[in-house]
Amino acid sequence: MNRRAAVLAAVTLAAALTPTAAAQPVSADDGARVVAETRVDERTIDLRVESPALGATAPVRLLVPQGWEPGAGRSWPVLWLLHGCCEPADYESWTRFTDVAAFTADQPVLVVMPSGGAIGMYSDWWNWGLSDRPDWREFHMVELWQILQRGYGAGDRAAIAGLSMGGYGALEYATRFPGRFGAVASYSAAPNVLAPGLPEVTQLNLISQGFPVWGLLWGDPWLNRARWRDHNPYDKVDLLRGARLYISAGDGARGPLDDAGKPIVPGLLESVALTNSRGFADKLRRSGIPATTDFYTPGTHSWPYWERALRRSWPVLADGLGI
User: Fold this and answer.
1) Please, which domain of life does this record's source organism belong to (predicted)?
2) Which of 209, 193, 189 lies closest to 269 in space, CA to CA?
3) Which one, 44, 54, 113, 161, has least CB within 10 Å?
4) Is 125:138 a contact under the CB 8 Å cutoff?
């Protein structure tokens, strides 16, 4: 390649990766709007959305299907993928740590990977009644939902999956909007946030992320028990009837997908997810709600297992998407 061609290629790439205002600004009913859009590659588009529900802007990554074109008038089934707690890559994590782009390359589905905050818990924060921000549920399920349908070809068929905090979020959103998701998958999550020790673990996580005031999320787990139950999928399993469900977790022991030369996330984290997820699956069974489960051993709280979980759950998700 000669120098002129090399310079031209570099300029073209830089232009493609430079955020620009959306050509036709897309907004939600409350004024949430796309303020920047970056075409990362042929299938990857990053959005920056100004959100009244958050009182801030937040990023969203899309993987568009083959044949997708802005404003083409065609709609696609939508797969939402939610990230976990304290993830520095945030909305980029699914594409950075898994092969989701290659895996979905031939699937007629729009993949949506929104930021959920370091520990947003996919929830409306109570803040002891002093503020209603951030409201991650409103941002994802109302503002972003409307934006995607109005400007990015999102159809009515949808499925949702997530890992750890995102697995909780997938089940929580499905109980908030019964019938919206044809399939729901939870990987290494704690669907029962009121299980012994979980409220304290949740608060410790909040402290570690810079939220030291007790109860900012849903209040005190005892004084504000009703609010916690309102955000607890375990207490709302009846609202999941009709959705195809997939629940998985490992035992925390180093397994075949772990790099022998690298330390692993403490096994206790995944083993707690396993116990919690088993209890959730048991309640589904007692309630007569079918679910596909994958409780495996060994396996740690790490991306190689969540990549595998996505692949294993794909028949359930695809069925819910109608593809």
Assistant:
1) Bacteria
2) 189
3) 44
4) no
- Residue 279: phi and psi, rounded to 5, are -65, -40
Rounded CA gap, 282 and 111, in Å? 30
- The label of the residue with tokens 């990554």 reads 61
Tokens standing for residue 279: 């209890």
Cα–Cα separations (whole angstroms), residue 244 to 141, 179, 314: 19, 11, 11
Measure the CA–CA gap between 271 and 252, rounded to whole angstroms: 5
Dump pLDDT digits (tens) for 232-279.
999 999 999 999 999 999 999 999 999 988 888 878 899 999 999 999
Q: What local confidence, expressed as pLDDT, does residue 24 receive?
A: 59
Domains of the chain: 3-321 (3.40.50.1820)
Q: pLDDT of 88-144, one tens digit each? A: 889 999 999 999 999 999 999 999 999 999 999 999 999 999 999 999 999 999 999
Please state, in angstroms and rounded to a whole number, the distance separating the CA atoms of residues 46 and 311. 24
Q: Please report the pLDDT score of residue 27 as a whole number.
A: 96
For residue 134, cis peptide bond before it (omega within 30 degrees of 0):
yes
Question: Are the CB atoms for 191 and 122 separated by under 8 Å?
Answer: no
Q: Report the relative pairing of strands 154-163 and 76-82 from DSSP bridges.
A: parallel
Q: Output the pLDDT for position 266.
A: 79
